[in-house]
Amino acid sequence: MTPEEGVQVEGLHYNLTMYGFVNGTSKVKIYTTASDSFEFTDNFTVPQQVYGVIYGEVILSYDARATDPLGYTHEYSFRDIKLGFYMTPVKNVYLEALEEEVNRLRQEHESLGNIQNELSSTRTLATILGVTTVIFLGTTAFLIFRRPKTYW
């Protein structure tokens, strides 16, 4: 970034601060740096509880001197110009892992529900077969003991 011809920028200073949100709600400062140049090579780590979006703020201060076409020099002083911007989203890996576990457990529960239905059907079938067997044995015993005493 270069100024226009006839404009001089001096005393450039900036302060970069990055904020995260603990549990996605409470704003917390996670990094800050101040410099006279726009070279940025630092690394920083994001705390575990921080997820959502990383928000950055740049505070600029500089002096500008411009010469107009008539040859007059104008001096401007800009102090503490604050610019805010969204930087990057941060995933909540713990929540994603928990959601995956809930989905796995839900599928397992549905699978067990199907097995329970099959067992219920088997139990009903066994009960019907048992009742039919008892009726058959009772009828057989009745017919054996009620045989006619005389034959023709």
Q: How would you concisely characterize the structure shown here?
A:
The chain is of the alpha+beta class and 152 residues long. 35% of the residues lie in helices and 39% in strands.
Descriptive overview:
- There is one protein chain.
- This protein has 152 residues and is α+β, with helices and mostly antiparallel strands.
- It folds into 2 domains: 7-91, no CATH class; 92-146.
- It is built from 1 helix and 4 strands.
- The chain has one helix at 93-145, and strands spanning 7-22, 26-35, 52-67, 73-90.
- It has a 4-stranded antiparallel sheet with strand order 2-1-3-4, with no helix packed on it.
- A hairpin with a 5-residue loop joins β3 and β4.
- The N and C termini lie far apart (126 Å).
- The relative contact order is 0.13.
The N- to C-terminal Cα distance equals 126 Å
The count of β-strands is 4
Q: What's the story with the biggest beta sheet?
A: 4 strands, antiparallel
Low-confidence stretches: none
Q: How many domain units? A: 2
| Global mean pLDDT | 85
Which series of helices and strands comes N to C?
A: EEEEH
Structural class: alpha+beta
The coarse silhouette is rod-shaped
Helix content: 25-40%
How are the strands ordered across the major sheet? 2-1-3-4
Amount of beta strand: 35-45%
Radius of gyration in whole Å, from Cα? 41 Å
So how many helices?
1
